[in-house]
Structure formats: C-alpha cells, structure tokens
Amino acid sequence: MKKYIRLILLFGILIFSANSCKKFTDGYRYDPNGIRNTTSGHVMLATMLANQFFHKADGMRLAMMWMNQATGVDRQYKILDNWNNAELKDFNGPWSEAYKVIGNAKLLEEMTTEENNLLTRGIAKLYRAWAGGQAASLWGDVPFSQAGDRENKNPVYDAQTDVFNQAQALLDEAIDDLNSGTGEIKEKKDIYFGGNVNNWIKIAHGIKARLYLHAKDYPNALNEALLGPSSVDDDLYAIYDSSDDASWGQYNPTYQFLIQRGGDFDASDAFAPQLFNSRANTKTDEFYRKSYNYSGDQLSTDFSVNVLNGRDKYGKFYGSMPLITYAEMLLIATEATLRTTSNIDDALVYYNQYRNLLHNGEYMGNFNEYGPYSYDPYVASDFDNGGMENPDGIDPKSAFLREIFEERYLFFIGDYEAFIDHARSFNDPMVPQYMELQDYDDEPLRFIYPETEENANSNYPGTVDIIVPLPIYN
Amino acid sequence: MKNNLTFYLTLLLTLVLQITFAQQKVVTGVVTEAGTGEPIPGVNVYVKGTKRGAATDFDGKYVIKAKQGDILEFSYLGYKTTTRKVGSSNTINVEMASDKNELETVVINALGVEVKKASEKGITVSNVKAKVLQTTGESDPVAALAGKVSGVNINLASGDPGASTNITIRGPKSIVLSNQPLFVVDGMPIIDDIYGSGVDGVERPSKIADIDPFNIESIKVIKGGAAAAIWGSKGANGVIVITTKRGRSVKGKLNLSLTSSIAFDNSLTRFPLQDKFGQGKNSEYPYPGNEYVAAGSWGDKIESRSGDPDVPNQPDYFYFVDQDGKKWYQVKAHEKHSKETFNDKNYNAVIGTGTTIRNTFQLSTATDKAKYIFGINYLDQKGIFKNSFYKKTGIFFGNTFNPTKKFKVTSNFQYIHTKQNAIQKGSNLSGLLLGLYRTPADFDNSGYVGTKYDVFNGVIHRFSQRGYRQHIGTDYKGRQSAGIGYNNPLFTVNEQKNPYNSNHVLLGSNLEYQVKDWFKVILKGGVDYANENAATYFPVNSGEAPLGSYSGYIYTYLRLNGDIIGQIDKDLNKDWNLNALVGINFLHDQINYTYGAYGDFLLPTDVPNASNATDKDNSGGIGEGFKRKSSGYTTATLSYKDLFYTTLTGRGEFSSTYEGFITYPSVTLAFDVTNLEYFKKKDNNKLNQLTLRAAYSRAGKEPDAYLRDTYYHGASGGDGYGSYWAATGYGGAFTISIIEGNQYIQPEITSEFEVGTDIRMFNNRFSLNLAYYNSLSTDLLLYQRMPPSYGFEYKWNNIAEMTNKGFEIETSYRILQKDNGLTWTLGGTLSHNKNLVTKIVGSKSVYLDGFISTSSRVAPGYGFGILRTGDYKRDDNGNIVLNDNGFPEASLEPVFYGDPNPDFKASIYTNFSYKNFRLRILSDGSFGGQSWDGTYGALTHFGRTLETANEVTVSHDEALQITNFAGEKIYQINGAVQNDDGSYTVRGNLYDFGGGTVLLDESWYTNNGGGFGKIGSQFFRDATWIKLREVTLSYNLKAKLLKKAKIKSINFGITGRNLYLWTKDKGWNIDPESNLSGSSRGRGLQYFNHPTTKSLIFTTTINF
Q1: Which residues on chain B are in Cβ contact (under 8 Å) with A38?
Q2: Shortest CA distance to B343 belongs to which of B277, B282, B298?
Q3: Looking at the complex, does the CB of residue A29 fall below 8 Å from at least one CB of chain B?
C-alpha cells in the first residue's frame, strides 16, 4: 500500500511539475511593444510615400547618370557612371521600393474592400497600377498579377505588354471606384490633394496616358492625356521639405544623398546642362530653367545638380519634385497627335500650350519670381526644311519629334521618363538623335533584375543585361 | 596614495596580531601535478595529528611550521593524498598524482554541479588553470584563452580598450544566432548577449569580459556536445564552465595577496603610406573653387616643388582660426610650393602608447565551518587611440559554509562597474582611420576645429571642422554640400564622444542537503543583472552627422535562474555504480530599454545636450522584452569496475519563443583500457592511462523572442546611400512590416558524433588527447530573403543546414624534471575544422556582414562566412576579357572568391621552471583561409598606398605606345615628364594583363583598379599568420628580509604579449586575426579596422 501511495505521489509531482513548467512560459508570446494592426488611412500614406521614393531616389540617380543628366564622380558612383559596370545588386533598391508600393497598395485594396471604402480603394488600385506599370517600363517582364499579395511566394513574371494591359484595366477600375462616391479619402493622410477625388481621377488618367505612350498606343495616350491634369494646380509632386524645420525623413533624397556623400555625384561635363545653352534661339531663353536644374559656373561645364537653398530660391533637387503633371499631359498630347495625325499644326496647339507654361515661369520652382521668360510659340514653318528647328533639313515631322524628345529630356531631368524615352526611341527611325550618351560601350536600354529576385524567386526569368532592349521596343 | 598607505599599514597590523609564535622550523615547498609539472594551488597541507595546516598558493607554494619527524599530509580533490616526513631539509617539494580511482574523483560538470569524474569519461573537455589566464595580462578571460585550447577559435575585434572578443568552439553552428558558447559561472548561465558592432561604429565590452581572471579558480571548456546537451537549447555551441574562487585558506589564517601590473600597449601594425605625391587629381594640386577639395592624393610630385612658402588665396577674406588661434588659408592657384609632409605628425597626434594599470587585492580566510574570499579588482586602461579608455572595477565575494555535515551552502557575489570611451572605427565618415589614412601627405591635420571666416560674404561659421577636403573648414552644419567629407582624425578623437558604462551584478547561491548517503538534494538560484548605458555624440559638422547627433540607450538585462536537483550516487552491487541527477529549471530573461536620439543642434558646441536639438529630429523609445523557459533534465552514468562507463542525458523544454516541447538527448561510452586486469598486473609506468570514448548528442539553440508573429510599424525606407524617408514627417503612417512572422519557428538542432582517446605515458610525463567529431546542424534560422515581389522581404525561418567536421590534438611532454627543481615542458595543440553550409532553402546566399562590393556570406557548398566579391570578366575558358586598351573589365555577377575559414589552428608552448624562475613561451598561428584587404583597395583608389606612388621611366618609343586606362599614351598624360634623353617618367606601374604592357595610373586605380571598383578580388590575401602570443618570465622572491616584513613572497613577472606577427602574405599591414565586424558574424573583412596591440606587462604579486 505504502508503495502505491509513493508511486501515486511521485506521479502527481511529475504531472504537477510538467504543468507548472508549461504555465511558466505561457503568456509571453507577443512582443509587449509590438503593434499588430493598422488602419487604411495609414497604409494609404505609406503607399504614397514609398512611391515617391521609388521615383526620386537611387534608381533615379542611376537613370540620370546614364542619360548624361548627371555624372558619377567619386567612389561607387564613379564606377556606376558607366552602365556597363552596373550589377544585379545595384538594382535591389529601386526594385524593392517599387514592390513596397505594390505590397502596400495590395494591402490597402484588401482593407478598403473589407471596409467598403471604395474611394480609397481607387487610390490603392491607382498606385498598384502605377508602380507595376513603371516597373514594366524599366525592367520589362515583371511580377504583377501575383505580386504583393503575400500569398504567392514566387510570383510569376508577366510579359511586359500583359503588365501594361493589366495596369490599364486596374486604372479603369480605380476610376470606377473613385467615381462611386462610396467611402472616403482621409483628408489628413492624402498629402497631395487633401482627399479631393477629382484630382485623383485626373491623376489616374494621367498615368494611363503615360503608360499608353510607353506602349506606343498613341490614340489612347492622347485621349487619356486630355483627361489627365488640366492645370498646374492639378499637378502631383513628390513632396519634400529640406528646410531647417523639416525632419530628415522629409528631405529631398538627392539633397540627403549629397549631404552624406558630397562629391560623389554632380553634373560635370554632363550633356543636359550643356543642352540648355545650345538650345537657345530667338524664341527660347533657358537661363532660369537651367539655373533651377543645375548650379555651378554657367560658363564652364563644371555643373552640379542644383541642391542649393538660397535666400529666395532653391534648386530642383532641394524641394518637391514633379511626378505627374499637366505639362507632361501636354507633351504626351503633342507627341501622340503628331504620331497619329502627322499634322504639325494640330500638335503645335498642345506644344505651344506647354511652352506657354514655361513662358509664365512654371516648372522652375520659385525661380518663377524672376523672369522675364522667353518660350514664344513655334509655328509649323519652324520645323520646315531650313526652319529654326530644322537647320539640317530633315523630315519636318522628325524635326518636331526631335524637339519633343529634346524638350522631354530636359523637362524630365530627375525622372525615369527621360530614361524610358531613350529606351523607346533608340531604334525609332522617326526620332533623330536628340541627346548624347557618354562615351561608353553600347547603350543602357533597361534596368537589370535585382539580386534579391534572382536569389529568392523560383520564377526568376534569368539575368538580362542592361544593353538588351525591352521586349516591346525590340 | 596616502589612503592606500593607511590601508596597507592597517592590514599589516592585523597580520602581525595574528601571528602565533612557535618553536618549530618553517618548511616550504612546491606542490606540482604529476605528469604536467604544473603547480597545484589550494592543496591542503596538514601536520598529521595536529590541527595545524596551510594551503598552497597560486604557484603551488606552501609554508608550514613543523618539527623534524612530523608527517605532512597533502590532500586535494582529484589527487591521491600524499604524505611526507619532515627531515633535516627545510624544503619539501611534492608531486601529486591524479587519483587513480577515478570513480571517487569529483569534478564540476556542465551544470556547475559536483559529480563523479566517471560521468565525464566519455566527453572532451579542456581544463585551463586560472594562473595561465592571469599571466597573459588580458583582463578578458576569453581573450586570455587564445592559443591555449584546441578546437577553439578566438577572434579579437581590435585593439580598442574594452573591445569584445569572439569565441567559437568546433566551428560555427548557427548562421544568424550567436556562435559563442554558453558561459556557466558557478552553475548560473550568465547573460550571453554580446554586442558586436557592424562595419562601423564603436567596439563595446562584452559581459563575459566583466569577470576578472583573478577571481577565477578554473575554466573548463566543454567542447563535446554530449556534455553540453544537458543545456538543451543553450548547449549547441558548447559550454564554458567558470568556477570562481571560494576561499581555500585554512582555519584562522588570513591570506592576503596584492597583484599590481602595468602594461604598455602599442599598435601591432601601421599602414605605410606614400609621401611622394600630394593632394589633387590629374597630377595637379587642387585650387580654390570647388566645394570639396579632391579626395585623392593624385596631385603633383612634392619633391618637384620649389620649397618656398605657400601663397595664401585672398587671406583677408577667407580663413580659418583653429582651436589654438592659428590661422589657416587656402592656397592660391599654382602657388603651392612647400615640400613639407605630415604622415608621421598626423599619425602620432592620434595614435600612441597606451597604458594599462591593474590592481587586484584578495583576502581569504576560514573558520571551522566556512571559507571566505573577498577581492577587489581595478583596471584602468588608456588606449593607443587618443582619448580612448576602459575602466573596470570589480568587487568579488565567495564562500562555502557547512553548518552541519549534511548541509552545505555556497554562494558568490560579483559586482562589476565598467566605463569606456571608444573611438569611431571602420567604414565611417567619422571613423578614425578612414580620415587619417586618406589624408594626403601634404596636409597638416593639426588645426581641426575652430571658426571659418567668410569675410567676403560677411559670414562666420563657428565650430567649423577643418579637414583635408575642407582646407579652411566647413560651413555651418556642413550644408550646401560643403561638409567635411571625412573627419579630421583629431576631431574624431577629441570632439566626438562615445561614452559607455555598465553595472553588472552576478549573484549565485547553492544549497545542498545530503538526505541519504546516496541521495542529495540541491537548490540553486542565480541572478544576473546588467545595466548598460551608452551614448554616441557627433557634434555638428561631423562627417557622419553634419547637423549633429546625440543618441544613446539604456539597456537593463535581468536573468533569473532556478534549479531543483536530486542527485543519486549509489553502488548497485560490487561492480556497478549509478551516478545520476534529475532536475527542473526555470529561466526568466527580461530586457528593458530606453533610447533616444537628438539631432540638428541649435547651438554648435562640443557639449552633448539633448535640449540643444530641434524637436523635429528627436526620437526615442521605451520598451521591454521577455523570454521564459522551463525545463526538466536528467543525466545518469552507469559504470562497471572502472572499466566501462556510459552516460545518458536528456533535457526537455518549453519556451515562450516557440511552440511545443523539445527534447535533447545524448549518450556517451568510455572504456578505460588501462584498468583491465592485464594492464594492472603489468604495473609499469610506460602506459599510465588509455581511455577510448565515443559520444552522440543533440543540442539546440533557441530562436529570439517575437519571431512568431507579423508586426506593424511606422513606414520608412532608404536606399543605402544616405537617402531616406520616414512617414513621421508627413503626419505618420503605420503599415505592415516587411518581415513576415513565422508561427512554426523552432529551435536549431545540432547533432554531433565524436570519438576520442586520452593517453598518458612514461610515468605521466607524456599526455595526448585526441578527438574527432562530426556534427550536423539543422533547422538553422535565417533571415530568409523573400522576393520583394511577394510582399514581404524577409522571414525568419528554419531553412539552413551546416556541417562541421574536425579533429583536435592536445599534447604535452615534460622533457626534464630534476630534483633540483628544474622542469621543462613542451606542449601544443592542433585543430582542424571543416565547416560546410549544405543547404539554404530558397536562397543562393545570405549576407552576414560587409559591403555592397565585398561581403561575408553563407552559401550552400561553401564554408561559413564565404567572401563574395566582384571579379574580372572572363571568357568561357576562364581567361580575362580585355578591352581595346588592354585593360580588364568587371564581371556582371559577383563571385565567391575567398574562404575566410582557416585550415588549421595550432599553438606551441614551452614552460621552464628553475628554482624561483619561471619562463613561459606561447606561440600560435592560423593557417589557410583568405581575407579581403579593403583598406588597401580603398587607399589605392585614393593614391595613398606605396604602390600607387611608384614612378616608371619608359623610352620615347614606349611613351608613344603604352596607354593608360583612359586611353591616353604616356607622353600625353598630365604629369609625365620628358627626360633629357627623350625618355619619359610617369607616375604609375607597368603591367601586362595579357594584351600588352599598359600603364596603371590614376585613371585605372580610381576606376576598377581600386577599392571602389567592381573587381574586389584583386584585394584578397592569404590570411595565414603566426604570432608570438606570450612570453612570460617571472621570479619569486622569498628573502629572509621579507619574512621580517611578514611577507610570504613577492613575485615579479614580465610578460610580452603579441610581440611578433608573421604573415604569409607580405602585403598585410593589418593584423589578419582582427575582424572588422567585431564579434558579429562577418568574417575576413578588413576595412579601416582599428589595429590590434602588442604589450609589455610588468607584474608584481605580494603574498602576505
């Protein structure tokens, strides 16, 4: 009997200790300071900010160097100045930034669907289409249909044209959502338009116009450009504040970069600042626009990208920077009209509207307080053989296209569009040479897939070199 | 000083009062271990039949009063009790043999519990005597282990005072978790978090370094997994069991010892830099006009200058007034004439001789039922880098108390206060060597902080920093891209501050009750509490933080540990014995943290003050974290007739960091061949011991807390080049983390198989231990890189596997042992470990540490830390592809180029001892493996290495043919000088990549020929090194005169540490043993590392 009691006792102690052992560790699973949810307004702002960084940080600096709008002068940037030195890992940043936008937009789409907040869902779709479309314009075939959903661990790479088509369809859905009147756009979290739906509808059309242009669908590009931002008040700018009162995370990324790595990146001997000089004619004076973009000795070639903040004027790379603008819509409309109708007069209507903006000092930061500016209207004869824009006597349409691309090249200093313009026009016989690349082998025609995908995505399509044309431009 | 004297006199007085007068003579001697000749401290010496006794000191020496004809009895755990009769001689040296009946010998096991030695027959351990650690002069017990144990890899971060040391046993078992063994101090697993720095920042002390070697009785390195497995998810890296002193005085005696040492430290290596060419580019000195002055030393030839004074540019309008009131100007265009160079001056201003002062005071005594020891340690180290220091003050108390025969209480208490100021290092615009080594030879760094006057624009910039890229200082807050670029090294050491202090308390208590003669109950409790306080201050205009930044943290760690153990020791019958213990353990870990960061200072000042920052740049956090674990464990050893031993061990755990109950078993077998009747009968001394053993074990490593769930955080991002965004400035945005939680996370598991043998021969004069092991680590955690297109970018996952195979040899031979006290021992260790990463699911490689260009990684098919870098572009046959000018290009994709893991590690030591002299020499080395010399690469880019300052002379014809990387012919190159005979002399090196001779010059070195280029493989070196680690000469003085002063002995010692470094690759200018990323995971990376030190240490020990 005694033996049994001992046995039962022993057994009891064992059970008791096992239980207390388990209890000892219970209740310590979660980080006492870790947050496990959020609201759609917050995710919307996160999406917007990730997107503007995607467009205006490391990827943009690479594109600027390769488009000869800037120069890599020291350390890593000296090497990267030559696109042939670019490696997979140099694209980890821009890629991850693009997919951060897509991932956040996807989350926002799910949250707003659940909340039946269709207006904000429209913004979610807009951003997903924008970032995905822009990624396809830079990398070609990219993950889109399965991207950012946090379910497909190895998203497939959709063909470039499929991405463009899906993005257009998604933008149509976005416009429907934005027109639905259901739900709300949190005013305080919409840093661009304070919740104004009409502005977002115009931006959606603007993105559609841009992506149609990339896809060389000119009639649709024209239609959408006319539905996009219709005045400078409609413009979407990446908002930066590099003033003393701002926090470091609000600063212009190029300005931040140059504070940290001054001397690595400037515009010495770059083509774009010199183009401003050579472009001047009796109708055009580029002095202030050049000063807004570039600082340095105006007489030599020793330029820097302008990050200056003077007492009353600041450089382009110090303050907010354009993303989707009325000006771009006019440039798209000009090119699309010319491409579809070949009617120089019709195209000039848009182009002279565009020049009129410059004439009034727009798109020059607060250099617009100076002036006078001179961007007088062109007439069709300016592009005729021997005209002021056609001294070499080429086909007038080509001469006009050259002017458009040249103008876009300058307007898009500090934007991916200048790089994409080169990629889509390098083998277009209608577009004569409008700028000079640096004297390295071959030409940069795309971004390389990043190491982060090569390393981890089983659907990775293989490394494609920077000099290989994008599928739709091949 | 006066206080010290008073204290000393009081102690002397106390001693004098304690002296008991007797007529007997004084007998002295040394007790050594048979076989090794090592002195045995703590041996009890009794005059048989009396209560009179003594104990041996650290050197195995004893002093006792006895009459002629008395019998002296020497006893010590683990040794056969030995008796000697007192004769006419006053000296009796005794050699004590290890207790032959090993079953009865008691050792401290991995848990810190006293067990029969039988239970450790099947495992590999290395015992290190405290004395051996103490003579090294290292205050970090881990650093002191270097070269003394086989199979152990010890990595120094650098020579910074207080820098942490990394130790790995039998190769790394983990990729992301710590590979450091568990440190068990008196049975308490102490806080094992070590804060290694990354590629920049500062070196901070580790918690283990808090334990002073003088408080340690012994260190036992448990290499085999079988013994470590009893620690379950803490055991996979092996265990280092530290037993602190418990007092070993005999009743009524007060033992007092005072050890003082002073060490002089110097840099072991110095990078040689050219002084032939000055600052500039394109062979020209840079003149005013640029916002930044040229970063490189590609300027004009200094010797060709006239030697006249430099002519200042607009001296009334632009100048800088430095800290001493001296005015500095820019040099007017084409008016740089001075031939003066400053390499030595700039170096000596910031790096010099460091000193380390250490004092240890220990007092021990005993009563009938208790022993006590009390100690104070003090260390004051001034580093070789100006203003760097490390101070450590420790109080130590240990005791053993036996109130009754059945009851025993032991306890110990340690309090350690450390204080440090470290210097920014590595890849860091504010780092010391980055700025120092890049400074051109013709730039004088001595004026470094002051006021910049821009009279022309009417602006004064206060607290401006002057450096070689800003000759007259920075504008206010370095804005408008006129920052300092790289810090002036004097600004780094004088104006930047990196204070640190920590309070560390270790408390342990052990209560044992002998219930039956075969059954004992043990209760153990321990507390480890540490409070760390650290800050980093960058004043405005620092390279790293032009707007200024002041950040800091307070971490408070608390570990509570409790065990209940039942221990059985029972003879089952005549031949079989069972020795077992069963226990349960509760462990609670807690961290509380507070941190803050302030920036963009309103007033430029050298005083760190948080309220001097604008609100917008302030940030901070308060938080806490917990880990809990409860475990049950058992270990049981069955032995048969001293011949066969088998041990079974098991541990099971619940943890808050993962789901489920995980068990860790191990089994060992041992066979004592020499205990066979056959050998026993032979009774010769040729083979004293031959043990064969085998073991299998499974141990683990637990994941960090809070990896099971996905969390949300404030949205932010950055591109790695200084561009950064955060939603806080835009009103804030909370979004999902890019790190995916993993609810299925599990501990990592390492299973190990090992065989070994222990041999002692020739009357114990020769010993040899061999071990071979083969371990497999599975379920290794990785910060798995997910494709960004998935939505999450990282996930913690058990997805990698790794193996370690290797062998270890430890041997020693006593060549001489003469009756006159002359002994000479020679010994050494050799170990080999082959690590191989066998699997990483879903990733080709994972980054550990390093740079974009060259990084230390893990990749399947390669050893841990494999270095990846860019290589030459090659064709299908592996030949380098050349461009039209005959220069190579870089490959598109990086390659795995160098394995940082050595093939072998070896050490050799010899000990001489004669009368009162002792000499110890230790040399160790690492053979094989590669490192990346990024310092050399970067300095080549900047034109600072000797290689870049070479000049070549070519014939006129060659000058028309040979081109540089830019495509210029030599005669066209700016700076090429035509000699009278028509030949040309030009800066650079002639080289043939295979397409004909080309000139390597500025255009090549600043492109792919330098450290910022894409071809990092050029800068790899063989990492083989040998060091003369330690030479110690000591003399023990025991003059009659001392006795009158009541001093038992005075020991003088002189130790040289790291006296000589030999490297196989002669290109090394850095200690290849040091590691840029400190005790973190990256390996084989050299990039402006702080140098290691060599030291000369003078020690005096006085025993009362």
Answers
A1: 712, 734-736
A2: B277
A3: yes
Which helix (H) or strand (E) segment holds residue B906: the answer is: strand B904-914
CA-based radius of gyration for chain A: 26
Q: Which residues of A touch B586 (CB under 8 A)?
A: 21, 24
What is the torsional sign of CA A31, A33, A37, A40? negative
A103-137 tens-digit pLDDT? 999 999 999 999 999 999 999 999 999 999 999 99
Of B726, B842, B893, nearest to A88 by CB-CB distance is: B893
Measured from the Cβ of residue B193, the count of other Cβ atoms closer than 10 Å reads: 14
SS3 B180: coil
Indicate whether B196 pLDDT > 80. no
| Helix or strand run (H / E) with residue A367 | none
Of the candidates A43, A78, A465, the beta carbon closest to that of B892 is on: A465
Contacts of residue A432, defined as CB under 8 A and 6 or more positions apart, other chains included, come to A394, A398, A399, A401, A402
Q: At what angle do helices A416-425 and A197-214 cross, to 10 degrees?
A: 30
Tokens (6 digits) for B937: 């690469």
Q: pTM to 2 decimals?
A: 0.83
DSSP for A114-182?
HHT-HHHHHHHHHHHHHHHHHHHHHHSSEE-TTTTSSS-SS--EE-HHHHHHHHHHHHHHHHHHHHS--
pLDDT score, position B683: 61
- Inter-chain Cβ pairs, chain A and chain B, closer than 8 A: 289
Give the largest Cα separation in chain A, rounded: 121
**Which of chain B's residues have a Cβ under 8 Å away from the Cβ of A306?**
none
* Amino acid B37: pLDDT: 67
Q: Do the Cβ atoms of A42 and B793 come within 8 Å?
A: no
Closest CA to B472 of B322, B615, B681: B322
| Structure-block tokens of residue B1049 | 């002995």
Measured CA to CA, the distance from residue B593 to residue B556 in angstroms comes to: 6
Q: What pLDDT was estimated at residue B126?
A: 83
Residue B1015 in tokens: 């071809």
Q: How far is A170 from chain B (nearest CA, A)?
A: 18
Which among B599, B788, B889 is the nearest to A96, CB-wise?
B788
- Name beta bridge partners: B107: B115
Rounded to whole angstroms, the Cα distance separating B164 from B177 reads 17
Distance CA B153, CA B150 (A): 8
Q: What is the pLDDT of residues B147-170, one digit of tens each?
A: 788 888 887 767 888 887 888 899
What is the ipTM score, two decimals? 0.93
- Say which amino acid occupies B869: T
In 3D, which of B304, B250, B240 has the Cα closest to residue B277? B304
Q: Around Cβ A88, how many Cβ atoms within 10 Å?
A: 19
- Of the candidates B143, B140, B138, the residue with the CA atom closest to the CA atom of residue B155: B143
The answer for residues whose C-beta is within 8 angstroms of residue A156's C-beta and 6 or more apart is A143, A145, A146, A459
Q: Half-sphere exposure of residue B826, counting CA atoms within 13 Å on the CB side?
A: 2
CA B735-B740-B741 angle, to 5 degrees, is 110
Instruction: Compute the distance between CA of residue B10 and CA of residue A471 in angstroms, rounded to an integer.
Output: 91
- The confidence score (pLDDT) of residue B274 equals 97
Task: Give A200-211 pLDDT, tens digit per residue.
Answer: 999 999 999 999
Q: Search chain B and give the residue with CA nearest A191.
A: B730
Alpha-carbon distance of B813 to B827, in angstroms, equals: 6
**Does any CB of chain B come closer than 8 Å to the CB of residue A154?**
yes
CA distance A56 to chain B (A): 10
Residue pair B702/B747 in contact by the 8 Å Cβ criterion: yes
Q: By CA distance, what is B786's nearest residue in A?
A: A456
